[in-house]
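Side project, low priority. Logging it here so it doesn't get lost.
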Amino acid sequence: MLDPKLLRTDPEAVARVLGRRGFVLDAKAYTTLENRRKEIQTRMEQLRNERNTQSKAIGMAKSKGQDTQPLVTQVADLGGWLKSAEEEFAKVEAELEATQLGLPNLLHDSVPEGRDESANREVRRWGEPKHFDFMPRDHVDLGAVRHLMDFESAAKISGARFVVLKGPLARLHRALIQFMLDIHTREHGYEEVYVPYMVNAETLRGTGQLPKFTEDLFALKGEYGYFLIPTAEVPVTNLARDEILEADTLPRRYVAHTPCFRAEAGAAGKDTRGMIRQHQFEKVELVQMVKPEDSYQALEELTGHAEKILQKLGLLYRVMALCAGDTGFAAAKTYDLEVWLPSQKRYREISSCSNCTDFQARRMLARWRNPETGKPELLHTLNGSGVAVGRALIAIMENCQDKVGRIHIPPALHAYMGGVTVI
C-alpha cells in the first residue's frame, strides 16, 4: 500500500509515477473523494460536540426543574444525523481503501522504461549455451524415455497442469530442494522456516495478492476461509505482521521450501506442454526484512544468492532488470533470473527477486524500532525464488542430457543422490 499522506498531498505526482507502469490513477477523482472524507469527518466532530453540549444542557435543565423535552428531541435529532454521517463516512473510507489497495508500488528510478517484457534489460549473463552434436530433446521426451515423468496419471488424478515424478527423477527433485536449503542456510546466512501452506485472507492482503489477484488463488471451501499459498513469500513475509523488530535483529533472512498453488487464470493456453507452468510446483523461497536504507543493497545480495545456486549447478542463465510495465504489483524493482533451455533455444524465468520497499510492510504494519528516535518505522521487505525447483529440474534434464537420453547429474548434487550420477 502506498503512503496515504503522499496520496493526499500530491496525488498528481503519484499518478505520474504509476503512469510508468501503464497504470491510470484519476488524481482528481481521488482528491474529490478525500475532500469528501474530510468534510464528513468535520461534520461528525461538529455533531458530536453539539450533542455533548446539549446533553449537558439537559442535566442543567433538570436540576433547575425546567422542561427538557425540546432538548431531548434535539439530542435525538443530532444522534440521527450523526448516525447518517457515520454511515456515509464508512462508505467513503471503504471506497478510499479499495482504491488504495488497488494501487501498485511506486517504481525505483532505475527501473527501465517499457510496457512489456520486450523492454526488459539484460544486466549480465553467466555461461554459454552448450553445443550438442545431436538434436536435444525437451524434458517431456526425456522423462518419457524410462517412464519417470507421468502426465497422464497426473491428469487422471487431478487434471491438466500436474505431473507425477517417479524413481530417480523424483529423487533428483528432492535432492534439489535439500541442496538449495543447505546452500542458503550454510553459505548465505538464512534461517530455515517451515510455514503453513494454507493462509487466511488478511495474510494475502498483507503481501498484495488480495484483492488484486483473487482469480489466481485457490480458495478452499468451508468455514475457515483459507487459501492455498501461491508462494512461500506470503506466509514467511507475514511473520513480521503487527510486529516491531529491534534494530539489532535486522536484517532478518528466512528461507523456506513449500509447494506453491496457482490457478494460472491469466495464462490460458500458455506453456501447456510439460512442467513449465503448473497448478502445483515447488520453490525454495528467500525473504528478507531490512532497514529502509539497506533494501537496494539487499536486493543485489539476494539476487546473487539465487544466482549462486545456478552457478553451482552449472546452469547458464542471464539476469534481467524488469521494465516498468513488467514489474510486479508489489515490487519497486525486480530482477528475473532466466535459465537456458536447449529445447526451446531460449532463456526462461527460474527466479524473480524483488524489493517491495515499504509497500507490504504498510499493509501488514510490519515495523522496526529506530534506536536514534526510539520510534517504530516501516520495514522494507524483499523476496526471491532461490530457485524454482521444477524449472531447475527441467534445466538439468535438458542441459545435462546425452545422445541416448541419459541425464548426467551435476557434481554439486552427487552427495544428495545416494551414489546415482546418471539417470
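Brief comment: The domain at 117-416 is CATH 3.30.930.10 (BirA Bifunctional Protein; domain 2).
Revisit when time allows.
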